[in-house]
UniProtKB/TrEMBL annotation:
This is Ribitol-5-phosphate transferase. Residues 365-402 form the LicD/FKTN/FKRP nucleotidyltransferase domain. Residues 42-55 have a biased composition (Low complexity). It holds the Pfam family LicD. Keywords: Signal. The gene is Fkrp. GO terms for biological process: protein O-linked glycosylation via mannose. GO terms for cellular component: Golgi apparatus. It comes from Mohoua ochrocephala. It comes from the Eukaryota.
Length: 528
C-alpha cells in the first residue's frame, strides 16, 4: 500500500504528540520517567565530580532552602549555588513568594511557591522532591563535600527506630541539644537539659536509648535551640508531617517530632556559615522581630500557649490583659476546648489566678465574709489551685456584706460597670442577681460573686439559680467559722468542713472522683 505525503505527515504529527504527552506525564510534580524525557540524577558510579572528586550521592538528596529572611537581606543565591555544586544534589527554594528583589539563582534551582492562589492548583511541594532524602538548609550555610552523605549514612545506619532526623550545626557555635515534651492537653511545650529528662519517659525507652547510644557519633536530642542547623531526614517522613515546611523550621520539626516520639541526632561535624558584615541596629531589630512573629504564628498554629524553658523561665503565647480570652461563649457548661480533649489554656489559668487573688485581697481588706464555692473549692481541696479544666472562679459571700466592698458598692449604686486602678472590671451579671469581676475590659476571664443570705432555719440561699448541679442550699453552720485554705497562691476562706460541703453539693466521693461541669456532654474519663 502506497503512503501519500499527507498520510506520512499525519503519522509524524501523531507520533510527535504522543512523545510530548509522554514527557509531560513526567514533568516536575510527577513521578520520574523511565526515559530521557527528564534529567536523571547521576548515579555514584564513575561520574566526574565538581566537588573535589566526591562521588554523587546514591539516590541523591534534595536540598530545600526555607528559613531565610523576607526582603533583600538574605543569602539565598549564594547558598543555593554552594549546594547545587554538589553532585547528586537538587536544590529547591521554598517560599510563600519568590525572593524579592529577584535574585539570580543557579541553573536547575527551582522556586516552589507555598502560597495557595485561586487561579493555580494547591501547592504540593512533595511532588517536586524525587529523592529519598531531603535536607533543610538555613540561609547562609555553605556546602561541605561528603557531609550530606555522612548525615544520610548516620540516619540509615541507626540501629534504633527513634532517630528520624540527623542535624549538623551551621557555623562555629552548635545549637543546644535539649529534651522536649509537648503536652497537647495542657497547651504546653516543656524543654529540659539532655540527661535530665522529665519522669514521663519510661524506663524501657531509656534502656532502649542507652542500648544504641554507643553506636552513634552524636548527641540524641528532642529539640535544637540557639543556632542554625542543617536537618536531613527521609522525604516520606518530612511530608508525613502536617506542617512540613513551616517556619522556623528547626522549632517546627522539633515540636512535631516530639509528638511522634522521634529524636534528632546532632552530629559534631559542621557546615560553614558565610561571613556577613555586622547588621545595623535597625536591621538586627527587624530580623529579631520577624523571627519572633514567625515563632508566635507557629505556636498559634500548633496550639501551644506556653513554653517552659530549661532554666524554668516561661515564654507565653496566649491571651493577655489586652486581648480577649482564648475561648468563646460557653454552652452547656462545656467549653469548646473540652470537646477537643484539652484543658483550660495555661494563659487563661494564669489570668484566673490573678483575678482570684485580686478579688480575695479586696474582699479581705473590706471585711467581707466570703468563701470558695463549687469547683473552685474542689480545686483548693485537691490541688490548692484552680482545677485544670475550670474556666471561672466561684466565690460565695454574705449579701449584707456587699456594700462593704467599694467596687461592689459602686456597681450597686450606679448600675454600671466599674474598672479599678489595676484594670480589673467589676459589674453586675446580666444573668441574674450576682456579680462578676473580669481580668480586664478586653479579657473576660472572671470570678463570679454569689450573694447568699440566711432564711429561717439557718439555711443559706440565694436569688439566682442557673441549674448547675452544685446549685443547692446548705446549712449556715458550714460558714461559722470560715477557715483558710491554699488557693491560687493565696490563703482564701472556705467552709469549715470542705469535704462534707462538697459532697452536699456534688455527691459522695466528689473529692476523690472529680468530674467535668456537665458529664452529660463530656466526661473526665474520656480524657484521662
Amino acid at each position: 500500500m502506497r503512503i501519500t505525503p499527507c498520510q506520512a505527515a499525519l503519522a509524524a504529527a501523531i507520533t510527535l504528540n504522543l512523545l510530548l504527552l509522554l514527557c509531560s506525564r513526567f514533568a516536575p510534580g510527577a513521578s520520574p520517567p523511565p526515559s530521557s524525557c527528564h534529567r536523571r540524577v547521576p548515579s555514584s558510579g564513575g561520574v566526574p565530580s565538581s566537588s573535589g572528586g566526591v562521588p554523587p550521592l546514591s539516590g541523591g538528596v534534595t536540598v530545600i532552602l526555607r528559613d531565610f529572611p523576607d526582603g533583600p537581606d538574605h543569602d539565598v543565591a549564594a547558598t543555593a549555588r554552594s549546594f547545587a555544586a554538589l553532585p547528586g544534589v537538587t536544590v529547591l527554594v521554598a517560599s510563600e513568594v519568590a525572593p524579592y528583589p529577584p535574585v539570580p539563582l543557579p541553573a536547575g534551582v527551582t522556586v516552589l511557591s507555598l502560597r495557595p492562589e485561586p487561579h493555580r492548583p494547591p501547592p504540593r511541594p512533595e511532588l517536586a522532591v524525587r529523592t529519598r532524602h531531603v535536607a533543610l538548609v538555613p540561609d547562609g550555610a555553605r556546602a561541605v563535600p561528603g557531609l550530606l552523605r555522612r548525615m544520610r549514612d548516620a540516619l540509615e545506619g541507626d540501629k534504633g527506630d527513634e532517630v528520624k532526623v540527623v542535624a549538623a550545626p551551621v557555623g562555629t557555635s552548635p545549637p543546644r541539644c535539649l529534651a522536649l515534651e509537648v503536652d497537647v492537653k495542657a497547651w504546653t511545650a516543656r524543654y529540659g537539659h539532655v540527661g535530665h529528662e522529665s519522669d514521663h519517659k519510661s524506663d524501657h525507652k531509656a534502656d532502649h536509648k542507652s542500648d544504641h547510644k554507643s553506636d552513634r557519633s552524636g548527641d540524641l536530642c528532642g529539640a535544637l535551640d540557639g543556632a542554625p542547623a542543617v536537618l536531613l531526614l527521609r522525604t516520606r517522613d518530612l511530608f508525613s508531617l502536617p506542617f512540613p515546611l513551616t517556619r522556623p523550621v528547626v522549632t517546627s520539626l522539633s515540636l512535631q517530632a516530639s509528638l511522634r516520639g522521634w529524636r534528632l541526632l546532632l552530629l559534631p561535624d559542621a557546615f560553614p556559615l558565610a561571613p556577613r558584615p555586622p547588621p545595623s541596629p535597625h536591621a538586627l531589630w527587624k530580623a529579631q522581630d520577624a523571627l519572633e512573629k514567625r515563632r508566635r504564628t507557629l505556636m498559634e498554629q500548633f496550639g501551644i500557649k506556653l513554653e517552659v524553658l530549661p532554666d524554668g523561665g516561661r515564654r507565653w503565647h496566649g491571651c493577655t490583659k489586652d486581648t480577649p480570652r482564648c475561648f468563646g461563649t460557653i454552652h452547656a457548661q462545656t467549653p469548646q476546648y473540652l470537646l477537643a480533649g484539652r484543658w483550660t489554656p495555661p494563659c487563661c489559668l494564669r489570668a484566673l489566678r490573678a483575678t482570684a487573688r485580686h478579688v480575695v485581697a479586696q474582699l479581705e481588706a473590706a471585711g467581707v465574709r466570703y468563701w470558695l464555692e463549687g469547683g473552685s473549692l474542689l480545686g483548693a481541696v485537691r490541688l490548692g489551685d484552680i482545677i485544670p479544666w475550670d474556666y471561672d472562679v466561684d466565690l460565695g459571700l454574705y449579701r449584707e456584706d456587699v456594700p462593704k466592698c467599694r467596687w461592689l458598692a459602686a456597681v450597686l449604686s450606679s448600675g454600671r460597670p466599674v474598672e479599678d486602678p489595676e484594670g480589673f472590671f467589676w459589674e453586675k451579671a446580666a444573668e441574674g442577681e450576682f456579680y462578676r469581676v473580669h481580668f480586664s475590659r478586653a479579657n473576660r476571664l472572671h470570678v463570679d460573686l454569689w450573694p447568699f443570705y440566711a432564711r429561717p432555719g439557718g439555711v443559706m440561699t440565694k436569688d439566682t439559680w442557673l441549674g448547675h448541679r452544685q446549685d443547692v442550699e446548705f446549712p449556715e453552720r458550714f460558714l461559722v467559722p470560715l477557715v483558710p485554705v491554699a488557693f491560687a497562691g493565696v490563703a482564701a476562706k472556705a467552709p469549715n468542713d470542705p469535704r462534707a460541703f462538697l459532697e452536699l453539693k456534688f455527691g459522695p466521693g466528689a473529692v476523690e472522683n472529680p468530674e467535668y461541669p456537665n458529664p452529660g456532654v463530656r466526661r473526665l474519663a474520656q480524657d484521662v
